[in-house]
Design brief:
This protein is 40% helix and 17% strand. A hairpin with a 7-residue loop joins strand 1 and strand 2. The protein is elongated. It comes from Bacillus carboniphilus.
Length: 128
């Protein structure tokens, strides 16, 4: 998986360059470059960045050192179907259910029945 330049000499290797603008920002991919070794790649990346914008950190990584997941490993990243309870959208129906519950408790018949109970208790007091 070692990548060399296209002229076939094998002297240069491909490096990937990442930079960070401030302490609060993340590292961002910038570009690829060809260099004979890590030290030269770092010097080339610094020269390229120091002319354009201020940065607080630069990472230079040999492309052949970067490993990606194979197809079998990618399959392990897929979510199982029964994990909806872990996402916020799984509880979206609760607001509607709660509203229906509250409205069901205070329907018109129930409110009117409160008035009937008070009148009945008042009538009992006056008659006794």
């Amino acid at each position: 998986m070692s990548e060399k330049n296209t002229n076939g000499s094998g002297f240069y290797e491909v490096f990937e360059v990442f930079s960070k603008r401030s302490e609060k920002t993340d590292m961002q991919y910038q570009f690829s470059l060809l260099a004979p070794n890590h030290e030269m790649a770092l010097a080339m990346a610094q020269e390229n960045f120091m002319r354009r914008e201020p940065v607080i950190d630069i990472w230079v990584v040999k492309r052949s050192d970067i490993r990606k997941l194979n197809e079998e490993e990618k399959e392990t990243l897929k979510r199982l179907d029964n994990k909806d309870y872990r996402t916020a959208k799984g509880y979206g129906y609760l607001k509607k259910k709660w509203r229906e519950y509250e409205q069901g408790m205070l329907d018109e018949k129930e409110i009117l029945s409160w008035g009937d109970d008070k009148n009945a208790s008042n009538r009992k007091r006056t008659t006794s």
